[in-house]
């Protein structure tokens, strides 16, 4: 286990079902994508499994994140806060990697598992219903996530303890506090409001 000074954490680019999306045009790209308790105005980060509301992530951004990490056939991708599973499905389908999604929301896990079966990816994609802060990701060669900054502050030390030298980490829209960025990529969306930033890190 090595300090994470050159690692790529790919922030989870999970999609959001319309009923669960609570975004406004101005802040949508900055919101994280882990399952959430009802939005009643309280700070739900007190709940260890809350990372923020869902935000739909375009396929182009999902692919760009995996490309930034140079995901390939020999990789094992962990998507933390995997939502509807779009990044782990893409990693297996379009990048020939193995992938594991960790998601707290049981219904989203069930949906992703159904998609895995439908696409015939049972041997390459796995979904874990659980807490990303309690998950062992030490076998990962790539980690992706789309988290709020204060969630990254909590997760970063865990990744530093678990990840090995050379592991790539990709974060979406918000950088990992204190980590030196290896490469940054900006992606324009359908409007100026819907732009995305991807940050690549490598453990060393």
**For the largest beta sheet, what order do the strands appear in spatially?**
3-2-1-4-5-7-6
Termini separation (Å)?
Answer: 10 Å
* CATH topology label: Rossmann fold
Write down the domain tally. Answer: 1
- Give the tally of β-strands: 7
Q: Quaternary arrangement of the chains shown?
A: single chain
* Element-by-element helix/strand order: HEHEHEEHEEE
Profile the largest sheet. Answer: 7 strands, mixed
Structural class by SSE content = alpha/beta
Q: Report the sheet-strand fraction.
A: 15-25%
Query: What is the CATH class?
Result: Alpha Beta
* Rg measurement, Å: 15 Å
Secondary-structure arrangement, i.e. CATH architecture: 3-Layer(aba) Sandwich
| Mean pLDDT over the full residue set | 80
SSE arrangement:
Elements: H1 59-68, E1 76-80, H2 86-93, E2 98-103, H3 106-118, E3 125-129, E4 142-145, H4 149-162, E5 168-172, E6 183-187, E7 196-202
Parallel strand pairs: 1-2, 1-4, 2-3, 4-5
Antiparallel strand pairs: 5-7, 6-7
């Amino acid at each position: 286990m090595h300090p994470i000074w050159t690692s790529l954490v790919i922030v989870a680019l999970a999609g959001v079902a319309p009923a669960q999306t609570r975004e406004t045009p101005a802040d949508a790209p900055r919101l994280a994508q882990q399952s959430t308790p009802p939005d009643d105005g309280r700070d739900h980060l007190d709940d260890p499994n809350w990372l923020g509301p869902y935000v739909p992530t375009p396929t182009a951004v999902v692919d760009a994140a995996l490309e930034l990490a140079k995901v390939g056939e020999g990789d094992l991708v962990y998507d933390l806060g995997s939502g509807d599973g779009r990044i782990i499905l893409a990693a297996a389908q379009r990048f020939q990697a193995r992938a594991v999604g960790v998601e707290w929301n049981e219904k989203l896990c069930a949906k992703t598992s159904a998609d895995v079966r439908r696409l015939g990816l049972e041997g390459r994609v796995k979904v874990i219903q659980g807490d990303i802060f309690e998950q062992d990701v030490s076998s990962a060669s790539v980690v992706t996530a789309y988290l709020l900054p204060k969630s990254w502050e909590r997760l970063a030390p865990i990744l530093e303890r678990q990840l090995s030298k050379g592991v790539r980490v990709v974060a979406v829209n918000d950088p990992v506090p204190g980590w030196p960025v290896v490469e940054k990529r900006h992606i324009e969306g359908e409007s100026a409001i819907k732009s995305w930033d991807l940050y690549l890190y490598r453990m060393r």
